[in-house]
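User: Hi! I have a protein structure encoded as tokens and I'd like to know what sequence might fold into it. I'm fairly new to this, so please keep things simple.
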């Protein structure tokens, strides 16, 4: 691809219309296939063979999301700067260092013939679109031409979505924080003493400097590479057994949490052929339904298991001969190569790629003596995880579905499922490495000692699993999976606030209706907010602004409804808590660094600290983390919160509303490059309640109340009537700016209204507003 300077004006936004009706002759198709589209523009693909089904899915994906696929494959291999220029160079350098292309090509080479055939058929469908249909307007705006789609592109776009979700960045954030403040102060805010910190992280030493440079790498790359929400991402899911429902059949619900993008990360699609009939959501660019869907008998969904499947190794290099790195047996030679990154409107940049047996060097310069290598289950060897995609589509029961997942590698998921036979079930799927030492569970570890090896994988018999548990329901919200520490899955899970609230809504003796079970998706009650409201009743009274804030919060129920004034005050209170409770420990400079969250995982660390403080206070705690009493600390926190709320909402507390400052702000990948097209490229804003602690995910940063982390796909399946399952996304089926289906689901999503999936063949035909026949070229 080549890039050119954008010279369009707002009055001349290029519009393209793909063909949605009639017939198109395409090469690579074996028999005719039909793409019907319903009132939301969702494609329903019907084919007479599996090959043609995947071909049709690829064609439809290109119709709806080709530019999004372009963005994903470019950022995955470090070629985004060729489109947007210098601003993406740091992201491209880091992407090149990850060496995902080589890993993706190795995965395709290791595929079984049927699995490779699926990816090839999908790619053929994408390429048939390129050969017959007009391109999305972004190509003209950016001055680039698409290359043909190849099977490894599907794999690499999947990998870039998940390498960013692993614990690698969190370990680096912990290490950078520890290097800044030292072990003693670190232990005052973290729940336990950092293991091995004195030996591994000498404060002020060369290793600490390496961590600061590595943090700067991610800070520079985060905007273009999409780290922000992936570093904080989570999800909710719950399955309720028929013994607790009015119908006597299970109900399965989920909502996946990720960064709000334009277009939305997930794409709704339905694929039918004689071998399977599946509807759900997937990533544009990837065949099948690895995360969400149903096949008429089994419904499934996933949440992030937060598993520890990435380690950072500190490699020691010879400054005199930097190609050499230290091992337990002396010096060895690292793999090294060089690549050139094209930069739009700028000079090309060169990048060196290094690799040791621990993995690619992702941070640091070997010539300076130390660098960080990333070992990752999805890239250290050919990944066979895609072998599960085809067999899972034919599963008839929950146990059958789980049996198909044995080869899944990454990401490690909480897989939740329910079937029409009445089963609900849970399994942790994915590869979890076993280690010879626990030192790497939170921090980077030395690579030259041989003490921190991977010794195997968690066995199938050790994998957490449950079928029809006695409680009658299963809840996953990225919380700790097992009550015990072993078998080891992860050191850092999400705070349990969302999981605890879902359980609170589901437990009880009454049988629940499907409507009541699904309604939990819209819950905006924050348990930490409720704990603080109760605690503030026993503190004070204070004077002035502090008492004004204390009185309002103490009388509040903790529900962050959109119209709530106390919810706005609570958001300001949380922000003030970070400054006043943790500032004395972190110091002014480190506090400012953490609040900026340029290294995105610091936001997750702060959220964890805030949760722990709220739980402690809710249980009667009277001492702040820095040792002062809350009685002395709270007046300052409350007064600061009150002043901030006035700045945000005005002088009259009766007029405060959370949703006036708390709204989505999705940005198209070219929006910064083309601000004159903001109204076309960027979807409307949606004002929301909730926050990062609530079931209805609406997370925001520590410096802005703009919503940047949301539910990007909601699904609800009543197994008493699975053919009428429902879904919604915060955008639309189409990723083409200006399309009628670019953001037509946003308002329904904001109001927690789900749309019908249209599954049965007769219903699909009745609901179809468009019908396109793909015919084989003669």
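Assistant: Happy to help. Inverse folding works backwards from shape to sequence: for each of the 778 positions I chose a residue that suits the local structure. Here it is:
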């Amino acid at each position: 691809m080549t890039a050119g300077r954008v010279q369009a004006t707002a009055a001349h936004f290029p519009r393209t219309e793909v063909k949605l009706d009639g017939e198109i002759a395409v090469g690579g198709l074996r028999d005719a296939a039909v793409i019907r589209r319903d009132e939301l523009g969702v494609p329903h693909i019907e084919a007479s063979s599996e090959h043609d089904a995947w071909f049709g899915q690829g064609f439809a994906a290109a119709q709806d999301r080709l530019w999004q696929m372009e963005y994903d494959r470019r950022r995955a291999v470090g070629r985004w700067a060729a489109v947007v220029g210098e601003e993406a160079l740091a992201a491209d350098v880091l992407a090149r260092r990850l060496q995902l292309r080589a890993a993706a090509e190795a995965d395709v080479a290791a595929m079984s013939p049927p699995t490779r055939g699926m990816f090839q058929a999908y790619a053929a469908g994408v390429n048939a679109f390129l050969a017959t249909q007009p391109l999305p307007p972004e190509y003209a705006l950016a001055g680039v031409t698409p290359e043909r789609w190849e099977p490894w592109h599907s794999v690499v776009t999947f990998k870039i979505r998940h390498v960013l979700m692993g614990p690698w960045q969190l370990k680096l954030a912990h290490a950078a924080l520890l290097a800044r403040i030292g072990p003693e102060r670190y232990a005052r805010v973290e729940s336990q003493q950092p293991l091995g910190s004195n030996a591994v992280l000498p404060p002020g030493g060369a290793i600490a400097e390496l961590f600061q440079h590595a943090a700067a790498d991610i800070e520079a790359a985060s905007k273009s590479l999409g780290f922000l929400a992936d570093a904080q991402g989570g999800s909710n899911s719950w399955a309720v057994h028929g013994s607790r429902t009015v119908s006597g059949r299970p109900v399965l619900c989920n909502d996946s949490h990720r960064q709000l993008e334009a277009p939305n990360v997930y794409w709704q699609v339905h694929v039918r052929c004689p071998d399977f009939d599946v509807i759900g959501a997937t990533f544009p660019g990837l065949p099948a339904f690895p995360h969400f869907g149903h096949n008429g008998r089994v419904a499934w969904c996933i949440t992030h298991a937060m598993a520890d499947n990435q380690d950072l190794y500190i490699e020691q290099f010879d400054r005199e001969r930097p190609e050499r790195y230290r091992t337990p047996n002396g010096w060895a030679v690292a793999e090294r190569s060089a690549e050139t990154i094209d930069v739009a409107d700028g000079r090309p940049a060169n990048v060196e790629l290094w690799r040791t047996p621990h993995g690619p060097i992702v941070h640091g310069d070997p010539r300076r003596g130390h660098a960080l290598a990333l070992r990752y289950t999805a890239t250290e060897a050919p990944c066979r995880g895609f072998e599960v995609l085809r067999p899972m589509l034919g599963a008839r029961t929950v146990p059958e579905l789980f049996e198909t997942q044995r080869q899944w590698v990454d990401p490690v998921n909480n897989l939740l499922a329910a079937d029409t036979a009445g089963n609900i079930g849970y399994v942790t799927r994915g590869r979890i490495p076993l280690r010879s030492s626990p030192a790497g569970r939170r921090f980077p570890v030395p690579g030259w000692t041989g003490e921190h090896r991977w010794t195997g994988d968690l066995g199938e018999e050790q994998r957490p699993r449950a079928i029809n548990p006695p409680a009658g329901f299963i809840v996953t919200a990225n919380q700790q999976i097992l009550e015990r520490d072993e078998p080891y899955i992860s050191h850092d899970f999400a705070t349990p606030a969302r999981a605890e609230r879902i359980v609170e809504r589901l437990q009880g003796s009454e049988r629940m209706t499907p409507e009541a079970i699904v309604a939990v998706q819209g819950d905006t009650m924050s348990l930490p907010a409720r704990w603080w409201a109760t605690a503030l009743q026993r503190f004070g009274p204070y004077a002035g602004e502090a008492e004004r804030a204390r009185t309002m919060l103490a009388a509040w129920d903790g529900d962050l409804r959109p119209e709530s004034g106390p919810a706005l005050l609570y958001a300001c209170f949380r922000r003030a808590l970070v400054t006043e409770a943790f500032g004395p420990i972190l110091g002014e400079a480190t506090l400012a660094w953490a609040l900026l969250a340029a290294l995105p995982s610091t936001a997750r660390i702060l959220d964890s600290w805030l949760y722990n403080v709220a739980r402690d206070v809710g249980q009667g705690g009277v001492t702040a983390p820095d040792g002062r009493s809350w009685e002395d600390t709270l007046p300052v926190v409350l007064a600061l919160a009150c002043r901030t709320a006035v700045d945000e909402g005005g002088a009259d507390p009766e007029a405060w509303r959370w949703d006036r400052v708390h709204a989505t702000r999705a940005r198209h990948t070219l929006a910064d490059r083309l601000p004159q097209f903001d109204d076309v490229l960027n979807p409307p804003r949606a004002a929301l309640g909730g926050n990062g602690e609530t079931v209805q995910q609406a997370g925001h940063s520590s410096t802005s109340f703009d919503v940047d982390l949301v539910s990007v796909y909601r699904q609800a399946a009543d197994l008493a009537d699975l053919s009428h399952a429902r879904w919604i996304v915060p955008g639309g089926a189409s990723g083409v700016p200006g399309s009628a289906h670019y953001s037509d689901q946003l308002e329904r999503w904001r109001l927690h209204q789900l749309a019908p999936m249209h599954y049965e063949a007769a219903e699909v035909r009745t609901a179809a507003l468009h019908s396109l026949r793909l015919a084989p070229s003669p």
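A useful reference point when you look it over: Residues 1-8, 192-204, 227-231 have pLDDT under 50 and may be disordered. Feel free to ask if any position seems puzzling.
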